[in-house]
Amino acid sequence: MIGIGGIGNANAADRRDARFGYALSAPALTMLFLVILFPVVSALYTSLHEYTLIAPNYDTFSGFENFMLALGDQEFRHSAWLTAKFVVGVVLLEFVIGFAVALMLNKVERFKPVYYAILLCPLLMNPVIVGLIWRMFLHPNLGIVNYLLSTVGFGPVNWLGDTKIAIWTIILVDIWHQVSFMIVLLLAGLASLPKEPYEAARVDGANSFQCFIHITLPMMRTVIVVTLLIRLIFAVKTYDLIYIMTRGGPGISTDLLSYFIYRTAFVSLNIGEASAMSIILLAAILALTVYLYRYMRAIR
């Protein structure tokens, strides 16, 4: 049996370890506060004032007026709805394509590093470079895409200048750039699954589809939720492709929320209202993150 003195010494050692851990983590937590929390608090404070680049001061407290103006702005609501459609489109399509490719690669034994290298090439490219490359590829007169279409009898398509096509063009370019992220994470999840349930199912006469429905999907649910959550957050923040390829046009057909906030801040010069829009966007992302996190905890 452990005596009272032994328990006291163990508690003292635990406290020393805890203090040592706090001391080690303090610099990282301080940097985290400065880099993340301070800008968020600053944006929240700015959103409560009439702060513009013409009058850059906090003299006029406006309360929640900037939030009401943002929510009442028709262009803001249009950008929010367009962003929601964009996010759903890219995340679902990337998930379907990524899961299908990951399932196929999981069966491959030879040349797997080669396939990894090919898949990671787009993901390693800077979004600005991706936007510039595809902007040249999709040029209505000089682009290689329209040239290839002309060889099979199709006329030129104004990929980035047609209000009905432009947003789908951005979605396809984003899929080309980011689908590798889905593939890598889902493939890592598939590679970590135990083999025993599949062997037992084969003995019982289950086919590949039944194994996928009753074994693969249930065991992959946590990985799927985490992958969708990370990709969803990145998709909501999409700015680079819009700025490089369309600048929100033609008209406002590709004016996603991140780019609209940028225009409000640095074109309309209204930093206060732009900060309010940023806080609204942050609140929406946090709410969705909390919901998916709770769902992930519930299915464990």
TrEMBL record:
<keyword id="KW-0472">Membrane</keyword>
<keyword id="KW-1003">Cell membrane</keyword>
<feature type="transmembrane region" description="Helical">
    <location>
        <begin position="167"/>
        <end position="192"/>
    </location>
</feature>
<feature type="transmembrane region" description="Helical">
    <location>
        <begin position="274"/>
        <end position="293"/>
    </location>
</feature>
<feature type="transmembrane region" description="Helical">
    <location>
        <begin position="212"/>
        <end position="234"/>
    </location>
</feature>
<feature type="domain" description="ABC transmembrane type-1">
    <location>
        <begin position="80"/>
        <end position="292"/>
    </location>
</feature>
<dbReference type="GO" id="GO:0005886">
    <property type="term" value="C:plasma membrane"/>
</dbReference>
<dbReference type="InterPro" id="IPR000515">
    <property type="entry name" value="MetI-like"/>
</dbReference>
<feature type="transmembrane region" description="Helical">
    <location>
        <begin position="114"/>
        <end position="137"/>
    </location>
</feature>
<dbReference type="Pfam" id="PF00528">
    <property type="entry name" value="BPD_transp_1"/>
</dbReference>
<keyword id="KW-0813">Transport</keyword>
<feature type="transmembrane region" description="Helical">
    <location>
        <begin position="20"/>
        <end position="45"/>
    </location>
</feature>
<keyword id="KW-1133">Transmembrane helix</keyword>
<dbReference type="InterPro" id="IPR035906">
    <property type="entry name" value="MetI-like_sf"/>
</dbReference>
<keyword id="KW-0812">Transmembrane</keyword>
<feature type="transmembrane region" description="Helical">
    <location>
        <begin position="143"/>
        <end position="160"/>
    </location>
</feature>
<dbReference type="GO" id="GO:0055085">
    <property type="term" value="P:transmembrane transport"/>
</dbReference>
<feature type="transmembrane region" description="Helical">
    <location>
        <begin position="241"/>
        <end position="262"/>
    </location>
</feature>
<comment type="similarity">
    <text>Belongs to the binding-protein-dependent transport system permease family.</text>
</comment>
<protein>
    <submittedName>
        <fullName>Carbohydrate ABC transporter membrane protein 1 (CUT1 family)</fullName>
    </submittedName>
</protein>
<feature type="transmembrane region" description="Helical">
    <location>
        <begin position="86"/>
        <end position="105"/>
    </location>
</feature>
